[in-house]
Design a protein that fits this description.
single chain, four-stranded antiparallel sheet, 23% strand, globular, Double Stranded RNA Binding Domain
């Protein structure tokens, strides 16, 4: 009579029966097909941040400003903008402003008739800023949404500007630069916008697009007044961007900067 051989016991509770040998381990390469156990998936913002870090490691500067950043001659965004050289490489901003925040404010479809038929593209408008005196606006059209969003963020980075902040409201007696130093206006198409300084506690009195831009620019309190067709998102955003740009191009009176506690660009802690 043949002797019966006992099979080794296992606590493995997989989808397939245990067939001897070493039990499979959790994680790593899958044993019987399927995906291994991993962490939670990255958000689109995290994916763009990782792609930007990889782009910096492979970046070869082609412009004069880029070579100055790589050599260490320029280490801050203020120094880069002060040179007057154009920003033509997004990795410059990735390297000098690592804490940059990004927001997509509009994605809409645009169509154009051609000889071969209807041509469909997507127009994406984005805003970038560090919440501390730096802000940029970009708009790009493309065939696919995701690559177009990336290009729009790169365009916004190359359009970055510094703004002046201060306590310009007549109701304000604080020394904190929570608002604008004076009233500014901007226009794009039929859209006109005026931004006025406000005292602390008022908040951002504007629509959602305006709140995003002012928040990324580092402004905490402001009033806005608009005229014209304000439902066109890009025109509204560009009009506000032009208004913020005037905070640095407007000539100041003697002593006005100290009186309104003005700061330009990033506030040093």
């Amino acid at each position: 009579m043949a002797e019966e051989t006992s099979k080794p016991q296992s606590n493995y509770k997989g989808s397939r029966p245990y067939q001897g040998g070493k039990p499979p381990q959790k994680g790593g390469k899958p044993q019987h097909g399927g995906r291994p156990q991993r962490g939670p998936p990255l958000s689109p913002a995290q994916q763009r941040r990782r792609a930007a870090e990889e782009r910096i490691t492979k970046w070869v500067a082609k412009t004069e400003l880029g070579r100055m950043v790589v050599s260490g001659e320029i280490t801050t965004i203020q120094d880069a903008l002060a040179t007057g050289l154009p920003l033509r490489e997004p990795p410059i901003i990735d390297l000098l402003v690592p804490d940059l925040l990004e927001e997509v404010i509009d994605i809409h479809m645009v169509q154009r008739m051609s000889d071969s038929g209807r041509r469909v593209r997507f127009a994406v408008t984005t805003i970038v800023g560090n919440g501390n005196g730096i802000v940029g606006l970009g708009r790009v059209s493309g065939k696919l949404v995701r690559p177009t969003i990336t290009k729009a963020f790169d365009r916004a980075k190359m359009n970055i500007i510094e703004i002046r902040r201060g306590s310009g409201s007549w109701e304000c007696s604080t020394a904190v630069p929570n608002s604008l130093p004076f009233e500014v206006s901007g226009r794009t198409g039929s859209t006109r916008i005026t931004i006025k300084p406000a005292p602390p506690g008022v908040g951002l009195v504007t629509n959602q697009v305006g709140k995003i831009m002012l928040k990324l620019a580092g402004i905490e309190d402001a009033w806005s007044f608009t005229k014209g067709q304000t439902q066109t998102i890009y025109n509204f955003a560009n009009a506000m961007f032009n208004a913020l740009q005037k905070t640095t191009t407007t000539k100041l009176l003697p002593g006005q900067g100290d009186f309104h506690n003005m700061i330009k660009g990033v506030k040093q802690e």
